[in-house]
Amino acid sequence: MADRIRQYMAYIDNLLESEEDDIDWEEEMKKHLVQTAFFAHERFIHLIVTVTFAILAFMVFLYTFSNFTVPLLLLFLMIMVLMIPYIRHYFLLENSVQDMYEQYDKMLAKAGITAFVRQGKYKR
């Protein structure tokens, strides 16, 4: 997933830097919103997984603290080792989706759309 996000964002960055006049920005914005929604959904799922693991780690920590055994300590350490990649991946997703919002704003500017009106219509 991380490679897919990076490749897609690089594609959009290249599109934004392009000097071509024949780019249909409104079509590209529609595609971009779909991709942003996919990545935002993935971000939400990873948030749920990360919070679940954090709660599990906290519960195991409390139980280990009150009933110390080596297997419980090993379980806690394994959960903490798993938390590191979950948190890292979640932050990649979070930051990427935020960057995609900025890319969308730049696409709006390229399309000549200056403001977003509350009724859902574009103002040129």
Would you kindly provide a written description of the structure presented here, covering whatever features stand out?
The chain has 124 residues and is mainly alpha-helical. The chain has one domain. Helices cover 80% and strands 3% of the residues. It has three helices and two strands. It has helices spanning 2-17, 25-66, 70-110, and strands spanning 115-116, 122-123. The protein has a two-stranded antiparallel ribbon. Helix 1 (2-17) packs parallel to helix 3 (70-110) and helix 2 (25-66) packs antiparallel against helix 3 (70-110). The radius of gyration is 21 Å and the shape is rod-shaped. The two termini are 36 Å apart.
Which secondary structure elements does this structure contain, and how are they paired or packed?
Layout (H helix, E strand, L loop, with lengths): L1 H16 L7 H42 L3 H41 L4 E2 L5 E2 L1
Antiparallel strand pairs: 1-2
Helix pairs in contact: 1-3, 2-3
Assess the beta-strand content as a share of residues.
Answer: under 5%
Ranges where pLDDT stays below 50 over 5 or more residues in a row are none
Instruction: State the secondary-structure class.
Output: mainly alpha
* CA(first)-CA(last) distance: 36 Å
Strand order across the largest sheet: 1-2
The overall number of domains is: 1
What is the subunit organization of this protein? single chain
Global outline = rod-shaped
What is Rg? 21 Å
The largest pleated sheet is described as: 2 strands, antiparallel
Order of helices and strands: HHHEE
Helical content class: over 70%
- According to DSSP, the number of beta strands is 2
Mean pLDDT: 90
User: What is the count of DSSP helices, taking H or I runs of 4+ residues?
Assistant: 3
